[in-house]
Design goal:
transmembrane helix
Length: about 180
């Protein structure tokens, strides 16, 4: 039995040492790109207003997505909402474009992943309190149903992002180039 344990430890210890520091964060960024990049960009595109300055004047749908109860209270007239609402919608839209891009290219990855964790938490809170998701959609851990939108699915998203916060971007990232250039100067 000791020989089997020793063989197991040797084999997987070698694998761990060979991939430590590069495989996990690289795969985390790849999985993020394959599953969440287009999701967030598609969502952000729905928030842009019309015309060339649409990035400064969010669509009414943007306000509905982020402030559903405030928009409803205003009779769906988003012009009745104030500067605060406009600023939050604008910054939220920019975050949906920039943070995923930064993660995928590996630029300031730890900060971008931390920002995305905050974004997912706020997104989930708005889905629950603003859009009134039902208990089935919110879900619960250890309930034998792994398909709930909030607790099950988004905890995987946050775990993936935590890997990037803790491990960084890996060697195939803009972080390596930028950080190495700064240390050379």
């Amino acid at each position: 039995m000791n020989t089997l344990v020793s063989l197991y430890n040797s084999a997987f210890g070698l694998l761990e040492r060979a991939t430590d520091g590069w495989l996990t964060p690289t795969l985390a960024r790849l999985v993020f790109a394959g599953t969440l990049l287009v999701y967030y960009w598609a969502s952000a595109l729905t928030k842009l207003g019309d015309g060339i300055f649409g990035f400064l004047f969010p669509s009414p749908g943007a306000y509905i997505q982020i402030f559903p109860k405030a928009v409803e209270a205003a009779g769906y007239d988003t012009s009745q909402l104030g500067f605060f609402h406009w600023l939050v919608v604008l910054l939220g839209t920019y975050a949906e474009f920039l943070l995923p891009l930064m993660i995928v290219i590996g630029l300031l990855t730890r900060a971008a992943a931390l920002g995305m964790i905050g974004f997912v938490i706020v997104q989930s809170w708005v889905d629950i309190t603003g859009h009134g998701l039902a208990a089935k959609d919110i879900g619960a851990w250890f309930d034998r149903d792994p398909s709930s939108l909030i607790v099950d699915q988004r905890s995987f998203w946050i775990f993936l992002l935590l890997v990037l916060v803790l491990k960084g971007a890996g060697p195939f990232a803009a972080d390596r180039f930028v950080l190495n250039r700064k240390s050379d100067a």
